[in-house]
């Protein structure tokens, strides 16, 4: 079972404190249009990522979820508008500062041939190293904590290619955690995983949020998204069509608009969160 969901959440205007009293950074998209070449995919999006919370992006295929994550990670330059980190233009910040603050796990990452789990996770420490000062004294401890957090410490000598899908995803998340970003962006980290492995991955992300990290994740399963999200963002046609608390956001009307499917929205008796049941076009009534 996932950890108990918080009963109170910070509002979008409240700064979130990480352990040690550090204020979590604020990541914003302001009137952002993103695309490839001159073709826009995401249109005029305003998004204020809630610091210290788990924000889930959902939407149909080609709705702009992955493109928006790439923009937030500075992998795409906005065609219009801007993305800011603590009020500063993300595109103008030093690369090392961004790498230390914002971590990204793209869809289907590929590990180098023959690399072992410990080596891959240690790659997450590179933004904190320099030409003159390579391996830092605390690197091993940080890597060990990332392995423990993802329950992958027993895999450290295994080759990544030998792992199951769920194990690989947890190892990639461990690498991202070893980077020690204060904002973590993940694009479909549960895709192609069975439900047990999906829950494992999402439990890890909830624990990271409980520790003060800001997490933005793309998911396809609406019921899991509603269960784990503090903030839910629904995209359709490259635009945000709904945003907010999952209970208020995932209505039958919103699901119909975003996914083009009729659905029944029920209430999970354990969490009070929405449970989405798609309805066949032949369903009686």
Automatic annotation (TrEMBL):
GO cellular component: a single term: plasma membrane
Q: What biological process terms from GO does the record include?
A: iron ion transport
The protein's UniProt keywords, in alphabetical order, are: ATP-binding, Cell membrane, Ion transport, Iron, Iron transport, Membrane, Nucleotide-binding, Transport
Report the PROSITE patterns cross-referenced here.
ABC_TRANSPORTER_1 (PS00211), ABC_TRANSPORTER_2 (PS50893)
UniProt-listed Pfam families = ABC_tran
Specify the ABC transporter domain's residue ranges: 27-262
Q: Which SMART domains match?
A: AAA
**Any idea where this protein resides?**
Cell membrane
Its main localization is: membrane
SUPFAM superfamilies xref list:
P-loop containing nucleoside triphosphate hydrolases
Instruction: Extract one GO molecular function annotation from the record.
Output: ATP binding
* Membrane topology note: Peripheral membrane protein
What name does UniProt use for this protein?
ABC transporter domain-containing protein
The protein's organism comes out as: Actinotalea ferrariae CF5-4
């Amino acid at each position: 079972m996932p950890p108990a969901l918080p009963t109170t959440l910070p509002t979008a205007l409240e700064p979130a404190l990480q352990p040690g009293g550090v204020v979590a950074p604020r990541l914003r998209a302001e009137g952002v249009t993103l695309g490839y070449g001159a073709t826009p995919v995401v249109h005029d999006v305003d998004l204020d990522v809630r610091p210290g919370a788990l924000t889930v992006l959902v939407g149909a295929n080609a709705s702009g979820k992955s493109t928006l994550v790439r923009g937030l990670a500075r992998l795409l330059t906005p065609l219009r508008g801007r993305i800011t980190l603590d009020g500063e233009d993300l595109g103008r910040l030093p690369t090392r500062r961004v790498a230390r603050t914002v971590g990204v796990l793209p869809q289907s990452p590929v590990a180098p041939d023959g690399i072992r789990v410990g080596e891959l996770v240690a790659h997450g420490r590179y933004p904190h190293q320099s030409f003159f000062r390579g391996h830092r004294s605390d690197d091993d401890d940080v890597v060990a904590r990332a392995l423990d957090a993802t329950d992958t410490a027993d895999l450290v000598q295994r080759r990544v290619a030998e792992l199951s899908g769920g194990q690989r995803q947890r190892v990639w998340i461990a690498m991202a955690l070893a980077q020690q970003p204060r904002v973590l962006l993940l694009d479909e980290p549960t895709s192609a995983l069975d439900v047990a492995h999906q829950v494992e991955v999402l439990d890890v992300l909830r624990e990271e949020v409980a520790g003060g990290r800001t997490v933005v994740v793309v998911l396809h399963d609406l019921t899991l998204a509603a269960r784990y999200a503090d903030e839910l963002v629904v995209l359709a046609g490259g635009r945000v069509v709904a945003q907010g608390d999952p209970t208020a956001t995932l209505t039958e009307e919103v699901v119909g608009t975003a996914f083009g499917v009729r659905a029944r929205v029920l209430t999970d008796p354990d969490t009070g969160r929405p449970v989405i049941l798609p309805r066949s076009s032949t369903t009686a009534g």
